[in-house]
Model the fold of this input.
Amino acid sequence: MQDLKSPLISGTATTLVAFLPLIFLPGIVGKFLSFIPITVFATLVAALVLSLTLASALFYKLAAKKKIYHSDPAHEESLSDEEKAFLLEERV
Done:
């Protein structure tokens, strides 16, 4: 997650900065168009928070090493001796 934190924040920030001028448009058109950047801001900030917190926690939980190994004798017969030894070592 440390590797992806900077690109996520900078990508979100550049998009937010691009929509920033729409908030300050004057007149009735400005009031009408101000809902677009507000929606984009809320959506992107929520997505950033979720991607930095919940998504990484879910990945950590789902990508944990499994303690159950499935045996496929047909596939294991086609392995070389080195691959069989490696497989046996990993299962231990």
Summary: Residues 35 and 75 are 58 Å apart (CA to CA).
